[in-house]
Amino acid sequence: MLVAYGPEGQSVVAEETPLEQLQQWSRERMLYCPNCRGSVHVRGGPEKRTQLHFAHQKGECAWSTEAESVRHARGKVVIANWLREQFPEGRVTLEERLPEPNRIADIYLVHADGRRWALEFQCAPLDVEEWKHRHSAYREAHILDIWIIGTNRREKQEAFIEAILAMAHEVLFLDPQVAPPQVWLRWPVTREVARQWERDTAQAPSLEGWVGRLGYGATVRGRLPEVRLGEHGQLLHPVRLTLERRTRLLNQMTTAVSADEALLVSYLRSRIDGYAVQQVIIPLLHAYMRDPDLLRRYNYGRGQANHAPTEDEQARVQRARQWLASLAQQGFTRERLHELAHDIPFVGPYASFARYIEMLIAL
Fold first, then answer.
1. What is the pLDDT of residues 96-147, one digit of tens each?
2. CA angle at residue 218 from 214 to 219, to 5 degrees?
């Protein structure tokens, strides 16, 4: 266990108390189990290369959590510190015994506004029915339970992981034994969304096969400090947020009646630098919207059958050539313009705009 009671009944956290003080209290038998009130001793520490913790004499307490792995003990400390950084006004405790739902929460957070969250770091095998029982018990006690899974279970217990995905629509795997702690965020996506990412997104996450009837399991890897908890306990990872935002924009663009400048700029923001957008994309979009059929009518200078290009059309195309030449002087070569055209999503009215750019480059 990571928490004990001290000489005056105060809560003592192993990692947050000087080792010399803990050793003195341990020798004087002044540390007590917060559950059974039996005497405990300090164990581990840097010299022994194990997580600093408190231990009963063997078999002394029915509530004992001492048979835990180093990964589990370390993970609880890592998660508690992660929560304290995000919610400095909340109260974060380790191994909090909760009369309702009659459990010891690995990490317990009470927000300033009274909301209560219990975070469980699961490294040992857990039956799906038992997990459902614990989940329901927390919710009946009006406590939001958030489950983080040790990386030792990442490739195991598919049914258990799927149960969490079905209920919470996301799951976080944590390796707390590296610095900084590494995480894998997994959530279900539909087959169609997976296809969009594969053809459109350079940052596409890995897809780990079908997740029941939910879709593919999308996974992004990162560091724990990059992840934040939202107001309702949802896991906020910057890559996931970018992907989901772009998916929403792409869906809007697919069903749009005409090309929209603000929508296109929002979509390209994470792909193209602002200078290229202002100097190339927006002027091209304005030209396209003014006369989307110009280049097809002009037909690369040949005109259409029985219809020669007008003087005005010839003048406009000549100005387009001059503009392309000026762009080349700014570093926007034909190759660079092709790259920009490929960043335009080939959906809805934007597909025609992408073709327009390609035709212009061909001049």
1. 888 888 888 999 999 999 999 999 999 888 888 889 899 999 999 999 999 9
2. 140
d(CA 214, CA 217): 8
- State pLDDT tens for residues 45-56: 766 666 777 777
Residue 292 makes CB contacts below 8 A (sequence gap 6+) with 352, 353, 356
* Tokens read off for 95: 């191994």
What are the backbone angles phi and psi of residue 301, rounded to the nearest 5°?
95, -10
Q: What DSSP letter does each residue of 147-211 carry, written as one string?
A: EEEEGGGTTS-HHHHHHHHHHHS-EEEEETTSSSPEEEEEEEE-HHHHHHHHHH-TTPPEEEEEE
pTM for the whole thing?
0.71
Helix (H) or strand (E) holding 87: none
pLDDT score recorded for residue 167: 82
> If you average pLDDT over residues 257-266, what whole number do you get?
94
- Residues 236, 229 contacting (CB under 8 angstroms): yes
Location of structure tokens 């992907």: 243
Pull the structure tokens for residue 67.
């048979």
The answer to whether the Cα torsion of 353, 355, 361, 363 is positive or negative is negative
Contacts of 343 (CB under 8 A, 6+ apart): 268, 271, 272
Residue 248, phi then psi, degrees to nearest 5: -60, -45
Residue 66 has pLDDT above 50, yes or no: no
